[in-house]
Amino acid sequence: TDEAKAIMAEMDEDGDGKIARREFIGRSGLSEDLAKAVFDEFDTDGNDELITPEYLRVWGRWARTRDSKK
């Protein structure tokens, strides 16, 4: 969770504790199309912003999926 908080803080340009779609796309380091697709996966409630718990839920699901394929 500390790493997730650091990632979120780095991407949060306006310091409101949320990552807006434009912040994510602009600061993710991914191509625009890939950043949009990744953001859509993280934005589970569809409100065009991410909060840390939302990020952690999706990241955890991805990690469990990857670990189960080993």
Structural class: mainly alpha
User: Got a strand count?
Assistant: 2
Count of separate DSSP helical elements: 4
How much helix, percentage-wise, in residues?
Answer: 55-70%
Radius of gyration: 12 Å
The largest beta-sheet arranges its strands as 1-2
SSE order: HEHHEH
Q: Report the portion of residues in β strands.
A: 5-15%
Uncertain residue segments: none
Question: How much is the average pLDDT?
Answer: 89
Shape summary: globular
Biggest sheet layout: 2 strands, antiparallel
Distance between the termini: 24 Å
Characteristic terms for this protein:
4 helices; 64% helix; two-stranded antiparallel sheet; single chain; 70 residues
Tell me what you see in this structure.
It is built from four helices and two strands. The protein is mainly alpha-helical and 70 residues long. The protein has a two-stranded antiparallel sheet with strand order 1-2. The protein is globular. The model has no long low-confidence stretch (mean pLDDT 89).
